[in-house]
Amino acid sequence: MLLSHTMRRVSAAVLLSALSVAAAAPALRFVHPFTLVELTDMALTNNPQTRLAWDAIRESQAGVELARAGYWPQVSLAYSYSRNDLVSFSGQGTGAQTRYGPAISLSYLLWDFGTRSGTLNAAKFALTSAELANSQTLQDVILAVEQDYYQVLGLQALDQADELSVQNAATNLDSVRENQKSGLATIGDVYQAEAALAGTQLALQQAQGQLAVAQGTLAVEVGLPANTHLALAPWNAHVKPVMPKQTVAALLDEARHARPELLAAKAGEQQAIANLEATKGRGLPTLTLSASAGSTRTLSGGISQSTKNYSAGLTLSVPLFTGFSDQAANRQAQAAVDVSQATTTQLRQQVELEVWQAYQNLHTAAVTLRTSGLQLKSAQQAEKVSRARYRIGLDTILSLLIAEETLASARVQQVQARLNWFTALAALGHAVGGLTSPAKEPTLP
């Protein structure tokens, strides 16, 4: 994945600055330019999805401790007090009797047919599944931040390209108006130049609106209000589109062994198998040790007596008939195993498809990025030639506007090609479960 190296922490000065800004104004505005690493760290700390995943892990940890409790003896302490008034047939009281005293009892399951072990194993696999699901959640959050980050930078570059197109269209309109005054251009040429300027302004307004939406999406993804202004650090180096060293077959195999979501599904399979073992054991005999000790004091007619009671025994319990509930529970547990295995197979196919599609998209993006660079150079040269020819009267305003439109389209295509490359690289890393990041972050022109 493009962001697979160790996360660096946002500096304390930045956080303190953010807190002071938050206290002063309802809408946060960060002056510090955030890098992709810093934004990802913020998202992993503040995004509710990560908190939910950690809560699920704690719940599964408690489930393991609960399952282990079955291997411990159950001890209880009781204190009883009773008073009996004795009445004869004649209705006369013959005295009162008071009994009180403490007692302690113990119950210990010595042996069963896998109920406890199956329950414990199921809880352990549930914990493993929750931990892997947490890893998948973190990767999902990282991917979302990467895509939003690149989207904002790409739209910022598109905004700059559209502003340049607006400036060129305005310059063309001024030139046409001057030519009209001198008789070198018609009113139709002016209308065409005005329409071209309006078209570039419309494209700029649309890009600005899309940029505002993308900025809000990124802010929410890192756990901040949507109206937060996040300044982004510019991409500081140009990276050529280089495909991963692994073949697509190697990437598919890597995903089968590294994708947390798929590993969690496999752990779910083992959990279902352990639940089946525990369910089968509930319909088989159990051997339980029980013991108790107590002291009872009896007070009757002014006479006090004290007795001590001790008992111990083994109980073999053999279920004979439970209304066919054990058989139904076994069938239900077996069906759960089949469902989990089918789910794993379906998920593996889905993961393989995601890897295949992401690899092909990355390959297409690499080719498109190279082609868009050549297209932009050619469009720039064509626009220069057309502008020079228009100035000396060899080209019409229509030819110049077509060249300007082609150049503007080439700028947009290159920005989109760069954006497609970086998002496709992030998507492939997410699909595989992790890719080595390039040495430097890419830059848009």
Describe this structure as you would to a colleague.
By secondary structure, the chain is α+β, with helices and mostly antiparallel strands. It has helices spanning 12-24, 36-46, 48-68, 115-181, 187-221, 248-258, 260-281, 325-391, 397-432, and strands at residues 29-34, 74-87, 93-111, 229-232, 286-300, 303-317. The two termini are 23 Å apart.
The fourth-level CATH homologous superfamily of the largest domain is Outer membrane efflux proteins (OEP)
Main sheet attributes: strand count, strand direction, barrel closure: 4 strands, antiparallel
Give the SSE string. Answer: HEHHEEHHEHHEEHH
Helix content: 55-70%
β-strand percent reads 15-25%
The CATH topology of the largest domain:
Outer membrane efflux proteins (OEP)
CATH architecture of the largest domain: Up-down Bundle
Low-confidence stretches: 1-25, 436-445
Looking at the structure, what is the overall shape? elongated
Calculate the mean pLDDT score and round it.
84
Radius of gyration based on Cα positions: 38 Å
Q: Given the structure, what is the number of helices?
A: 9
N- and C-termini, Cα separation: 23 Å
As laid out across the biggest beta sheet, the strand order is 2-3-5-6
**Count of structural domains:** 2
